[in-house]
Amino acid sequence: MTAPSPRAGTRRPRPLLMIAVYAALSVATAAVLYPVLLVIKKAFEPGRQFALSASPVPEDVTLEHFRGLLGQRGAGGELAFLQHALASVAVALATTLVGIALACTAAYALSRFRFPGRRTALTTFLVVQMFPASLLMLPLYVLLDQLHLLNSLTGLVLVYSTTAIPFCVWTLKGYFDGLPRELLEAARVDGAGPARIFFTIVLPLARPGIAVTALFSFMTAWNEFIMASTFLTDEGKYTLPVLLQSSVGQFSADWGRFAAGALVTSVPVMVLFYVLQKYLVGGLTAGAVKG
Amino acid sequence: MTAALSRSRPAARAAALAAALALAACGRAGDDAVTLWHAYSGDERAALEDEAARWNRDHPERTVRLVAVPYDAFADKITSAIPNGNGPDLFVYSHDRVGDWVASGLLEPIEFWIDGDTAATWADDALAAMAYRGSLWGLPLAVKSLALYVRTDLVAAALTTTDELFAMAPGLRARGVFPLSYPVDDLYGHAAWLHGFGGQTLDADGRAAIATPEAVAAAAFARELVVREVVPRDADVALTATLFNEGKAAMAMSGPWFQGDIAGGVPWTVTTLPVVSATGRPAAPFLGAEGVLMSARARDKDAAIAVMLALAGDDAAGRRARRARQVVPNPRAYDGDLAADPVLDAFRRQLDASVAMPAVPLMRAVWTPYKNALGSVVSGASRPADALDRVASEIRTYEAP
Amino acid sequence: MTSTPPPRPPVRSALRDAAVAAFALWLVLFTAFVRHRNHELADRERARAQAAAAAVAAGEAPLHATSALGVVLPAEPDPRHPFLARRAVVDAAGTRALGGAEAPAADKLLYDAAARFDREGPFVGLLTDGSGRAVAAIATPRGPAIAVTAPPGSPAGLPWLMMIGLLGLGAALVTAGALSGRGALGVGAGLAVLVVPAWMWGGVALAAVAGGVAAAVAVAHGRGATERLAAGLIAHRVALSFLTPAAVAMAVLVLVPFLVGLVIGFYDHQHGTWTFVGLDNFARILSGDGRAFDDPLNFWFILGVTVLWTGANVLFHVVIGTTLALALRQPWLRARGLFRVLLIVPWAIPNYITALIWKGMFQGEYGAINSLLEGVGVGGVSWFSSWATAFAANVATNTWLGFPFMMVVALGALESIPRDLYEAAEVDGASAWQRLTQITLPHLRPALAPAVILGSIWTFNMFNVIYLVSGGKPGGSTDILVTDAYRWAFERGERYGMAAALGTIIFLILLLWTVFGTRVTRRTEEAP
Fold first, then answer.
1. What is the predicted ipTM?
2. Do C444 and C524 touch, CB atoms closer than 8 A?
3. Which one of B85, B137, B184, C50 is separated from B312 by 20 to 30 angstroms, measured CA to CA?
């Protein structure tokens, strides 16, 4: 953001406006931070229920929730939380790899080549992104049932790929669009075939874009809840979101365990999100507007 | 960074795929084992795992594999997994869904393997709860009903009638304590009062008998409990445990599983539910027989029935009763210390005043509408008669003509 | 190099077209064959079981091998347990008791079949254990005569000779047609050969489909359309090969489930059986299932709730987001960076965690919201006992979740407004309010419009918040369309047909909204 120009707008505004602006921002910030502070407080306060007081300051500090969360052992003596974390990592990683691997070439084709049906393909990828995954959940459930892929992490990766591939195609196309034409022209004149151009010149150039897309894809799969809950039956296979939700289920609610788990699960992706968020808005609005 | 990315990607890709496949394959290992699904937690789960480990030690050639499935979605997952061959060989659930599952062809009848002598292992009522339309579909592991847990430091005298319950309220509320806590809008808990007032859900023929004057009186009673602050308005099962542990509820209406939720250092005892003062009849909760059932698609049925007989047998029953405080329906298991256990004794006495949960498929359609009705009655949004009429009309659409 | 490719020899192009069409048809025919063969096998097994039972009833030996057979004598119920009936069977080896812990598995088949006979009367059917065997029970004076067939051997394979012969005949017809100058006729005739297996395995319907395909391909070939298509594919082969991996994955992962979802909507699924019901599901949904408008199971009620939900949320998101963005843009503001970082926090938190946290905050006895209300003297509310408060709880959660997105979009749009406009307006004596309404808001509109479309679609489908915060309480009245569809599929007895029909309707609604919204957006962009 550039410094405000010295001529306009630096006159001190009316005090009423200043108060209103600071008040609005402060109220909004307080409303934003309050639930977060509550969760942090609950993670460190003993007891399975939220405390009666509404203040965000913990009255008593304990690490028992973290110990219980991270130290819980499953039926075979294995560390349960580690198992769930590994499940989440495996699923998110596999989804990202599938998404990127399948989407790279298609995104490049949609960006650089002109062929009949290109506009239809572009619209299709955009439209598929917009529609809720929950609509496809039932047919996917029936299909995976027939293939005996229910209650398996492989099946879950397939389900996630349904949304990951269109997202990767669309986002990568945006990056490929921004690559300098001259470089590619020069390579073509030099006699390189399109495949060679793609693998030796385009891909290395687009590495930052691919990395960003991969990270967003990973985050989306990491944070996904409802499909994992529906497609996985065996508690031992649960990914982290399902584990968190089941700790505050209908019949036994341990909010302390939930709060500790929420912190451990979401702090890494929140940090990642902060690093990446400026890429996200640009891609979304640019893509939607240009169509 | 870019150079590192390009070098590490193939290796990373291979490793990740291997990890994903390995994790998926983990689910396939031991496919020839007898798979048993359960929704146990805490001590009950530990007891079941002990029994499974014991069986596996003694029968290494036909092992049993336990799978923990959360209770909320358990029945739905069974119903959708079994028809396509993705379900378990055995599973543990209470008897009230048996009718529904038999109608869908999901269960295997087991009376073929059971003769009269074997059947004497279990109490007649408990075994009969696992029967439906002339066949036997499972073996009972434990009988469950609600009883009254009492904090002896907050309640001096034993509670015998509901009038006494109301009398307690002002004094306890002044100290910020509820006399009683249970999910007031759930039919499962409310059934104790419903039957105490002489009402019922389904009649002897399995047809709905919802909007009777007795049921209306029971619903009005539930509202009175909330209005006079005897019971919290909004407590679910989890909150009941917390209130009891933190001394904010003097009594809790819950089942044998509640013992695992009670925190250490809390002085408590169990007794039977009080008598409904308006009718003079004891409050009679639902009786649920929790048993092990066999899927119609079980692969090795002989191995499966052997596991069932072992789990429900007297030896295992005794161990489960001691470890998990389950009220087992095996009369011969109650010897020595078990016979004198006060908690088990209280639950067995409560069994005399309890009503078996109907197992006909129609019952499944009753829970949610009744819960909505109780919720609106308790919050004052509708009159008991109107709410129950609505329930009756909603269930009529599910009833076979 | 000439711009058009040289004309292909007629035979080669005719054969190519016929081969591609034949391959596509072949995939369908093979599926039909497998289904047909399985049906035939089941029918045969059932007939054999019936015949074997009749043979047992007549005292003769059955023709085909059986797993178990005999006449089961009437059940003797155990005096204490009416469901523990003792049975005995009479077969060639004499009379023996059925049952006990160590009895052979075949005896159980007889026992269970006798029990089913007692309940339903004579029957014939397939065993549910997936072995392909059939069981039949016929009444005789002594008791039901029961037979269970032996497991069928491996099923008959494809009649390869017939297929090769047909394909050869077809190829010959195609070649003859091409050589004699009637390429289209040849292709049509060659493909029409496949009508024969289509009729064998799929009846008249499939035969009609095969005939239709043959005719269509023939016409296309005759008009040169296939030639142009082939030329186009070859000209763009690089692009298409790049596109293929993602396209195939999308076809498999998106197109196929989408079509399956469409088809399932025409069936009813209850207790594990599928029945074709045509438009019945759609009729039930669109007519509100005969329920009152304010009944949560009425589609129009849920649609109303969903529209209200979407509208309220988008309104709040836009108003709050834009207001905060305007506030952040004040040039004299201190700590702008800090505010901006903190205000994006809700966007960074995974939304299921947000939903669960707010569910905890709205809890009746211990929730933070009620504690705050009691602290200011208003008194706690039972949030999920009434529709209005439960709806408000959901809206509050989603507003908290969603305003950062609008705020960031608005910030980006505000940054792009040229400063000179403001300076000129100030020079002209415009007040702050006029600057806001005449310059800022008009420039915001084109940037916010696509964000509003996206946001409205996301909100319309916001499953996690509704499912986890209010859970549809009270009584399902705060459910939106997507959660209702989920419950039909996974919580109301696996009614997949209703869920799929509802999903199709939701899809159409969203499609209409997207088309409508894009058109409006384009008009906003064109307007100055």
1. 0.84
2. no
3. B85
